[in-house]
Give the backbone structure.
Amino acid sequence: MSLPFVKIAGTGSYLPQRVVSNDDLALGLDTSDEWIYSHTGIRERRIAADNESPLDMAFAASRLALQQAGMEPEELGMIMLSTCTGDYNYLPSSACLLQHRLQAKNAAAFDLLAACSGFVYALDLAGAWILAHQKPVLVVASEMLSRITDWQSRETCILFGDGAAAALLLPSAEEGLVYSCLGADGEKGHLLALGGGCKEPASREPRSPSYVEMQGRALFSVAVRAIEQTIVKILQENQLSLEQIDHIIPHQANLRILEAVAKRLQIPTARLLSNIDKTANTSSASIPILLDELNRTGKLKKNDLLLSVAFGGGLTYGGNLIRWLKD
Ligand code: ACO
């Protein structure tokens, strides 16, 4: 018998061991803890070891999510993996590498590229796929931004950190994944870009390094509007007020973005949950890392209503309304 809804049955996350503080960065850059913290809310970030790869992080997070859901990898019907930093450029996909590492023999697998909105995009797609196929889906976000960061650029390198997280989704008799809205604004794609793609023919000569390039100021105001409008849309479409949402889980790009959103929504900044002080911006992994942190520290109660909201390169944006159905 097919079940009419979808729920999250387990989460997991992984952060590399190495902690790099703002003071550590200031040793080699013209910056300071005071500047970074006051402009971003970041105190430190985790940076992967040289022998760690995005796949290693995805694998560690996935094992924990499967374990929490009490499921074996062979039971998975699909793996969706969001990343801007795959182990390989394009092929093979990180999702296929993960499928092999997990020995998830019965799962289809593909990567999803929606930058920092990747996890909210993937939850929506996973929900539709589960309703059609009635099989479990593992949604993973693994981002090693340290590998595409120019460590000599104080405008960008202070913002990013490495990490991964996963959520296991199942067909359900109760409604766990309530609603999602997704959007894109390709006209503003140039605000955050990473070169090295197939626009140029391949060459035997080594290419110059490709670092993520960002127009921070412009992104800031776009992000504030996108996050505010997505929250308002989710509330309106579901006839809810902000007071009815138990946990708002935004993408962790910059605490000042969250402060500006809170001001517009006339709510205390603390209503927009944040762990950016310790993780920095882990792109699409930031929402599921925070979700797993809330889950594992017992902050989520059964039937709590969660709202996730993200914006990212592309530009992309979106959010999910989630009823927490785990005990
Ligand atoms: N340390 C010290 N000074 C710095 C640093 C630094 N790390 N970085 C920049 N400055 C200097 C600049 O050189 C500039 O100096 P000037 O006035 O002498 O020219 C001054 O500080 C102000 O620079 P701005 O770039 O205008 O600083 P701003 O207040 O805009 O903060 C920041 C920069 C933090 C990048 C901000 O614009 C931001 O967070 N934007 C959003 C970007 C974002 O969210 N990116 C995430 C990636 S996208 C995503 O997650 C989807």
In short: The chain is about 30% helix and 25% strand. Residues 31, 35-36, 39-40, 115-116, 154-155, 158-159, 192, 214, 216-217, 219-220, 223, 253-254, 281, 311-313 surround acetyl coenzyme *A (CB under 6 Å). The first helix runs from residue 22 to 26. The two ends are 24 Å apart (CA to CA).
